[in-house]
C-alpha cells in the first residue's frame, strides 16, 4: 500500500469479515483495457520491445489491494518463472494474476481517488482513499482521518452484494510474450 492512502479501518474490518472475502481473487480498484503508454515523454512509457501487446491484462491500482494468502502464494510461485516487468502493478496483479487465472474482485466503488481534487470527508463504506501528494499532505490525511472517526458510528455494511467478481481470461498473446522473454519459446 502506498503512503498517501488513508485506510478506513472500520470499513476494512467489516469488509474482511464479510462474505465478499470468500472469493480467492485480488480485491482492488480495477483497471481494464488499458493501453501501455507509448509517448516517450510519459513517466510510464513502455516501448513495443518491452511489451508488444496492445493492451495490458486487467490489473489493480497499486495504491492498495487485498488478497488471501492462497492468492499471494500463487503469485509468488508464478514470479519464479515469469521475467519481471518494471511496471509493478501490471506485473503482479495483471501478468502474474492473468497467467494463473486469478480472479479480480472489483471494489472500485469503495476506493476513493482524490488526486488533485478537494476532499474533506470519507464515507463510512469507503475502504481506501488515495490522496496523491498535495502540498499539505499531512493536513489532508489528518482531515480525512478525522472524517473516518466521525462517520464510522454505524453498523457493519453488507459488502457481499455490492462487489463484482471478474473471472480471469488470459489476454491473447500474453503467454507467448512471457515464453519469449523467459527463453522458453518453441
Automatic annotation (TrEMBL):
Question: Where is it found, in Gene Ontology cellular component terms?
Answer: Golgi membrane
Under the heading Pfam families, the entry gives: Galactosyl_T
Task: Give the Gene Ontology MF terms in alphabetical order.
Answer: hexosyltransferase activity
Identify the EC number(s).
2.4.1.-
Q: What is its main location?
A: Golgi
Q: Which keywords does this Swiss-Prot/TrEMBL entry list? A: Glycosyltransferase, Golgi apparatus, Membrane, Signal-anchor, Transferase, Transmembrane, Transmembrane helix
Localisation per UniProt entry = Golgi apparatus membrane
The record's section on InterPro entries has: Glyco_trans_31
**Plastid among the record's keywords?**
no
Membrane topology per record: Single-pass type II membrane protein
Group of enzyme by EC: transferase
Tell me a GO biological process for this protein.
Answer: protein O-linked glycosylation
UniProt similarity note: Belongs to the glycosyltransferase 31 family.
Q: What is this protein called?
A: Hexosyltransferase
The species this protein was found in: Amblyomma americanum
Lineage, broadest ranks: Eukaryota, Metazoa, Ecdysozoa, Arthropoda, Chelicerata
